[in-house]
């Protein structure tokens, strides 16, 4: 449980230490990639909790979503439509849904644990 | 085993996500700290920067000066200066050929009506030439030659046994050419106009000569003075062992 959080912290530290800066015109792509990564991560957590987790789906989904989101934004820039908004919308909605599902699962688990404790 | 593997991939993804987040964070948050200096602090900072700028400008100037000094010391060494001065003096004295804007005068005898008892003239009286020279000098002539002889400050024009000599060169045949070079074309025009109405023309005519003034030309060549210049009454100033 703590290992992914540790990994997140390590990643942030590495990112801050390397002091890499992306040109301002590309920050759009990175933000959408971050959103896709977040969505995939929460999706993975949900799947894990629902016991339908598949490693291949998770890892491939992570990279595929990032690439798809970035290329969507790229296409949007070139045809003059803010297509990255579509990605933001889709990922945002899914993010909220996933987090809601995770919350419910955790709540039921907590409740059942409590019941077990009370019974015993 | 499966759990461990899944955790590993989760961790990996988390690391990548964190990395991306950090980069995005850094990219978006460019001004790292807000500028909270008040106007006096800003003025102080501005003053400091201006001082630095002034120092830099002074440094640049001194370097440029040095550069210019090196250049000039290389270009204008003593020898070059001496040569330049020598050349200048030569031009001033008349030892060089000069080409410039000017006019040509032609002196020829009047053949139509020789008059009674007069014979065809072979030489121009020296007095006439001297007066002509005076007049030319009055009208800002700078370099003059008569019959191919350069006129310089020490030139003598005199008559020896009714033969006019300019620095030893005798004028034997007419017509002769007088070449005059002035500063520029404008000066040449002016000289031309002045000579058209000058007294010299009348004086020449009285003596049986015609003074033809040709139109100004941008390139008149005055030859160099050929004879050696003898300096008899001049000697260099001796001041404190210097030059």
From TrEMBL, chain A:
Pfam family, one: DUF1290
A GO cellular-component term linked to this record: plasma membrane
Superkingdom, taxonomy of origin: Bacteria
Key words, A-Z: Cell membrane, Membrane, Transmembrane, Transmembrane helix
Membrane-traversing stretches: 28-45, 57-77, 83-106
Signal peptide: none
Topology within the bilayer: Multi-pass membrane protein
Cellular location(s): Cell membrane
Family listed: Belongs to the sbp family.
Name of protein: Small basic family protein
The species this protein was found in: Neobacillus thermocopriae
UniProtKB/TrEMBL annotation, chain B:
Organism superkingdom: Bacteria
Pfam family for this entry, one: DUF881
InterPro entries: DUF881
Residue ranges of coiled coil: none
Protein family (similarity comment): Belongs to the UPF0749 family.
Protein name per Swiss-Prot or TrEMBL: DUF881 domain-containing protein
Species the sequence originates in: Neobacillus thermocopriae
